[in-house]
User: Fold these one by one.
Assistant:
Number 1:
Amino acid sequence: MVNTLIGDLGHYSVIIAFVTALVSSFSFSFAANGNALDGEQASWKKLARVAFFVHVLAVFGIIFCLFNIIYEHRYEYHYAWSHSSNHLPVHYMISCFWEGQEGSFLLWIFWHALLGLVLIKFAGKKWESPVMAVFSFVQLFLTSMILGVVIGDLKIGSSPFILMRDFMTDAPVFQMDPNFVPKDGTGLNPLLQNYWMVIHPPVLFLGFAATLVPFAFAIAGLWKKDFSSWTKPALPWGLFAAVVLGVGIMMGAYWAYETLNFGGYWNWDPVENAVYIPWLVLVGAIHTLLAYRKSRTALRATFILFITSFLLVLYATFLTRSGILGNASVHSFTDLGLSGQLFTYLAAFVVLAIGLLVVRWKNIPATEKEIATYSGEFWVFIGAAVLCLGAFQVLVTTSIPVYNAFMGFIGVKTNVALPADQIAHYTKFQMWMGIAIAILSGTGQLLWWRKQNSGTKLSEVFMLPLIFTGLFTCLILLVSKMGYFERIDNPAYILLLATALYAVFSNLAILLGVLRKNVSIAGGAVAHIGVALMLIGILFSAGYSNIISTNMSGMVYAREFGDEINRDNVLLWRNAATDMGPYKVTYKGQYLEVKGLPDYVNKQQLFRIEDEFKAIARGPLKDGDKVVYTSGDTVEIYPENTYYEVEFKNRETNKVFTLYPRAQVNPQMGLLASPDIKMFGTKDLYTHVSTIPDFNEEKEWGELKEYQVKIGDTLFVNDYVAVLHGIEPAKDTLLLNLKPGDVAVQADMQVLGERRTYHAHPIYAIRDRMVGRVPEEIEDLGLRIMLLNIDPEKGQFTIGINTTQKDYIILKAMEKPFISILWIGTIIMSAGFVMAIVRHYKDGKGGSSKGPKGPAGKVAVKREKQLA
Amino acid sequence: MKRIHIIGILIIAVAIGIIMSTASDASVYVPFNEAKARAQEGDDTKVHVVGRLKKDAKGHIVGMKYDPMLDPNYFSFVLVDTNRVEQQVVYYNPKPQDFDRSEQVVITGNMQGNTFVADKILLKCPSKYTENEVKVETASL
């Protein structure tokens, strides 16, 4: 039954949201321009607010309808069909919601709506109207992206409420029966079935949405020719946007580390860069803003940077959603044919914002006085410039596909491609940006600190941090030389280490100084320490990532290119131990996830039936000591993912641990391998399967060999010794559906494998005078055993045995030293940001106090040196 | 001249340096003929080549070699570029699992002797995740 009501409801809500955004944007701008005295302003504002409230309700309505479609599995809708499926757990249904372009636009719209409400409540009389006018104007554009209206050849937006029959008008099934509803959806991209994908997109889009707030304040300031006071409310909002966006980026990085198999957390993929660029600029903007708040300099730069950061968010949207990246990116959205619309918006905002800035440029107050070299502000300003240059570098390279498209558009064919070695290319710049940022953050902070404690000598301020830096750098280098971890001998890496340590110690010195007076202003120092730690974490984990799965078999296909070639993957036969780094590594079998059990269950303990989401337990399945399922129970399984048990045994300490790297053979996407990571204090061991025997190919069994044996006889199969212990009534008859009068017996056999003894019970059954045989397969040994015939008179049994290729996996394993420092640094940085937000929010409320400002500057994070 | 102007000039200088360096690092999409010509001139920079797998009349892939039991890090295949030039390609990594089903292959690497050594392979598969994607318009397509 096709339910058109919910879709219509959703679609009308979109239209209402669009219209109300239009109304509220106009009314807010009239209110902003209106005269407060004759009441014109108040009435426009009233109308605008009502329109915005209706807009928010409509947005909730859209979300309700779309979620209902997914949750109720309404596959008559294309969105549910293409992003969800029957077996998807509820928390991943939330991810389905934003897997598609329309849903992710909706998520963005949702955050704007909420932030709009907050601003109406808290922005204050002066700012509400102009800020909200900008807000509603942006909402107008965003809602039009999901409008789904076609006028002639012009398609405006793509509706998430489109029915399958309208989407696939050519499909014969809908021509025959327009009311056809598919039974199941095509499912969620398996890589997104990860808890980080439930939380990462909302955080990232909240960051996007929050970037609009300081932008709207900056525009409002230009518009109302109030060039200064907007900076006060914009500061906490800017900090908020930066921390949310930064955390969102790092969540994405952690997801990539945990789920994708390129071997790291940052791949310089255009989609990642697209978010990294505005974040750097935003952080730069916060720095110039702080400099302005402190010493009335760099106001123009602050305007430029806040406006640029929002325009770069729009540019990121354009890059990732227009399809322009094409084969330059692994994970861009599918193209909905909206690139024209996206480009129009981008162009509109660029022209309007920059136009306004140019018109007002002369009126923006600028200081004529020189900034002293020894003032903190000077270094803060340089820091912002370095951040922007770093952003610029990533932007220039990431935009390469855009140049091709643009040149193609004006009729010139170009063939520029992204750099062949992207990591080396980006590292070349971003590492030096990291070094510069580390030096500047330490120096700028110390100079600011000196100003606070006027009278302190320069040498006194710098002495202690420099001594500690020298000491610890030497110590770390010494320890590394002694072989406790990778030897650090690259001069650039040593410099990065030293400067990052300098940033840590100088900020630590300030923090300790501040702690005695006022904890609340320590945010800047804390954030800078976090960033410096992130730099150290990146330096070690990426710069000294070490592949331990080196192929030492000595067998290589061709030596035509010397020994330089890659040997990074090792073949592991099932149950055969292989040396790898400090470990003896054994691949021990394939496992599945069973509902209700915390541990994975060996495939051999499950009998698979026709319904691929169910299986029958062949023995008791335990959770610790508690038996959850007994033999014969039907259990629910997640058949998509296979986990490969790989045992690591340290050769020296004999300590054993087991990892379960995952692989999924997806009909649409081929092999999707996800790593499993063992975390140690000083490093992570990161492993993933690179290749597995092809699932789609049926197993090739060798010729059937027959053996005539009596009870107690021994037979030799493929180097294994097997014994027939006896014949007994069949136990595992559940699947045979025996009726009274049928007979079933099974052989009781024992096979000695390399590691353990296997029991095999092939079944021989007679039913309605027909012989049926159920073979037993020992996957570990690559054997299939059948009880072919029984000769009761002679007491002789015919056993048939096939052999096959033994199971194997190809594994890649690497060590990532001190990667935990990166995550710890991220958390510390975020904490610092939050402290700064709290402080500046209070400051904004208190209004007048011009007390000591927070240490300027939150520095950028770089993830250079990402050896994929 | 004020200090701010010196800084401005420095920033512009660095920005120009970034653009120049990006231009020199940027790779190109070329057909095999040009990749060979580059190698003969002693230019060993890495290039992108777009092509399809060589198939026989029945649609089976021809000339693909991967034997993980012998060497899991050696995979070799024949790629036909957009000018219909065939070239043996070697990839010192395991064979990508969905390689056989790919419609279009983009490889990055350079010619070394008679073989093209690829260090990156990007596959375009006929899947729901990519079918609607618009390819970047390039000269070699």
Number 2:
Amino acid sequence: MNAVDVSSREAQATIARRASVLRGAFAALAVALVVAAWPVMRAMPQFGAHPLIYGDRVNAIGPAERHITNMVSAINFDIRGLDTLGEEFMLLCTVTGGTILLRGGRGEDRRAQPGCVRGRANHRPPDSLRLLCRMLAPLTMVFGLYLAINAVLTPGGGFQGGVVIASALLLIYLAEGYAGWRDALGGEFFDAMEGLGAALYALCGFAAMGLGRPYLAVFLPLGSLKSTFSGGSMLIVNLGVTLAVAGGFATLLIEFMEETRALNPGDDADG
Amino acid sequence: MGEALSLLPWIGVVWLFGIGLYGIVTSRHFVHLTGCLAAIQSSSYLLLLAIGYRYGAVAPIFYDKKPGTQAVDPVVQALVLTDVVIGATVSALLLALILQLHKHAGTVDPQAMRPMGRAGVADGRQRRGGRVG
């Protein structure tokens, strides 16, 4: 591999010399940055008191044309729906990439055995922590669902809700330990959830095309303002995002946690 | 005074970007470097939110307010949401790369990595001796 031993005094001296050169270069760069940034900062629009043309248009048409009250969701799932699809697939790609990287060094199987790094004690979590996490995990999960479901009404949405749901899974890990966690979560469930969520988003766009409208145009009945079921097909898109984000982050959590598992005889160590 | 206050958000943006860059330049640990990248990314959140701010306006959520109330810009807020999601996934990907690096090379020190196709730190002695890397 490309690493070199830096423990020798020679290497440390080289690194120290290099670091001082880097710091000098950075100081020069910082001065140049400040000099270059100053006129830009002076030319920036007056903070807090300049016209927001696009924002005002969105704030006007969101409640009127789409019957929803959360304008950020209106932009993400309707006005910039295609961008969010791209973001969705970026998420899918990074999760896939991270999984491939991690599994490449570990082999593909995932099993419900406690992770244990050689030489590190594997204590059972203390009861106080287990109790606290058992109480907090369901509450966090419900809060995540609340954020995701009310995407079109109040602050929140599929991205925020999905991440909160995935962090509830981490609390379950803290409470139950590795083995219980893997038992509870099952194997390939979150992989499927992530992929199906992204697929649901994309297919919802094609459904709009099937009805003779542009890709990702809102099609279902819009409902009434301040109703949970307002916004038409934005709700489907939001569900897709929730599934994909929760599934994607859960997959990443599982893959990172699998890294703590000691290799068994027969496992391929470096793929 | 008013003008100085108006400049404050942009100064904050440049400062966040600067300290993040300083951390990356002088980093001796790849996990630290990933954190510095997150600091640089935070400067873009601050920039976007500062652009969309408006004095005396409410959040662009009209559940408990009459539609038509003066609200801040939701466009940049949606961009920040995208930014945060991408930042989180990029961090996850970088951390996975760091784990693999640690497994293969046994180190997470950027200074210990040999630049591709060129002599690294340990060859400094030889280079001083006249050998070109």
